[in-house]
């Protein structure tokens, strides 16, 4: 029995741009990673520099979940869709995604943009990140993201995140 699953590639349409990360989403994700990093490492100049580099590298390992909305689109784990497609392929089902199999796990343009935005934020707000790093109890999301990176801009993803955590 041969079942053929085909997902065709399309030219990037305007609605697909919704999958690209915003500065708000990028900063909130950075906040979580920075907080985790600081909790696991002793504060030092070298550790701070490594943390700034590591956070953006870690974001590059995230996966895009097009079946989810908002900041939940970006997660460390593989999407259920990709897991299911890989399972089908392992069972002998011919699965066509319009690209070679070896490209299935290549970083998406949305995740590359997430990493690029992270690197831009680190570069542009290095002083604010350093201040946050050395001040115990200063909230990265509030002090760096809301007050510096997103000042006067869209902070809707922060409210969305709070709603999702309830």
Automatic annotation (TrEMBL):
Coiled coil start-end: 71-131
Keyword terms of this UniProt record: Coiled coil, Signal
Top-rank taxon: Eukaryota
InterPro entries membership: DUF3456 (IPR021852)
Translocase as UniProt keyword: no
Domain DUF3456, first and last residues per copy: 40-148
Keyword Coiled coil part of the UniProt annotation: yes
PANTHER family named in the record: CANOPY B, CTG4A-RELATED
Similarity section: Belongs to the canopy family.
Protein name, as recorded: DUF3456 domain-containing protein
Provenance organism: Mesorhabditis belari
